[in-house]
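Hi V.,

You were right to ask for the full record rather than a summary. Here it is.
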Amino acid sequence: MERLLDAHSKQILQEYLDHLPEFQEKAKEIYDTIQETFKKVGLIVASVEYRVKTEDSLAGKLELKGAKYKSLADITDIIGLRVITFYSEDVDKVASAIDRLFVIDWENSVDKRKMLEIDSFGYLSLHYICSTEGFPYRFEIQMRTILQHAWANMNHDTGYKSGVEIPIYYKRSLSRMAGLLELVDDEFSRIREELADYRRRVQALVASGNLDDAPLDGDTYRSYLNLNPFRRLNKNIAAINQAEIQEVSLMPYLEVFQSLGFTTLGDIDRLIKNCSEAAFQLSSYQISLTDLDIISSSLGPQNLCIVYILINGGGTAGLRKLFDTLNGANESNEMMAEYIMDQAKDLPFMNEKK
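Predicted structure:
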């Protein structure tokens, strides 16, 4: 598209073309610096994007308001970066990191989150105009949440892209939608904060040993596993053959314990205290006459569950359900259940049950 540019604007555009490779190289360098910093400080964001303004985009800008700029250095968005966060409070964390990396032109930076009237909704974003040592041109970094980003794109497409003034009732609809997205952003942050508080309380309960007060769920169980509750049993089992213990994830047993009706970590703790001897008996019968020199760390909890099921009259059906839960429904689980029943029938804990 041919642009009508005056001599001054053409001079600025030529300066841009002369330095275009430098802009492209610097944009990638800034992007890499931001990504490396986020990784170093453990800041997780949805995405980081960068671009260098195209020749046509710059020419369009100069056509409209070229007289505003004395030189290319006055145009602050030749290089543009955008950081998209999951949560609204992370925008400020990103801003803090950016502030430490670059020199911020505070006079020309804009926090659009603070510009709206109290009874209006709309585009929310934080824009920093930045510079870095050894590079004479400024660049722009936009920071906003995923939902703010979605709103900006939708509003651009519906409100501005056509260049036609839209009726007031459509503007009101867009404003209501912006309010809803802002509310959702706030709710996500609130839920995140409450979940973090919950996890801290759970970890404190586990650490203090108040296991009956800790409900059995993914967070509490994961914290409980950090205490290695099955380690003693597994070490005793491994000692039968002087075997090594291969560590595997014990998270699949969360569903097993829940299917047994356990509702707190205290239920698992009592299982370990009450059934470890019987689980050791079963393990000894299974491996003492073998040359097995490696056992899985899941053997202890598995045999605890087997013993619990048998002591409580679950029989073959209960064992089948256990193996279905661990391995997925399969006909071979019935054979395994019958085999375990045959192994256990003459063991001391089964006689005590009788």
